[in-house]
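Journal club prep — side note

Before the paper discussion, L.F. wants everyone to see what a predicted structure for a comparable chain looks like in token form. Sequence:
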Amino acid sequence: MHTYFVYILFSKQNGTLYIGVTNDIARRIQEHKNKLIPGFTSKYDIDKLAYAEEFQYITDAISREKQLKKLNRAKKIELIEQANPEWKDLYNHLL
């Protein structure tokens, strides 16, 4: 069985957000932290895990990613703060 994740990264509390999808969240967050993939997250130093959801099917994960990306900023922050009110980097909880 495969597992897929939709995740939200942040640069600092209430800072820049990034939403992505992956099949290996620990590896992917490590790539963001080490800036191994050039682009938006490395340019804006977005490397802290604020929120994640797990899915069995990639189609569900992609659908949820698209849904989250359509939310306005206030709704995204509300979602994060419901699950992670202190804006802790949840990466260490993955290991």
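L.F.'s comment for the group: The chain has a mean pLDDT of 95. Keep this in mind when we get to the figures.
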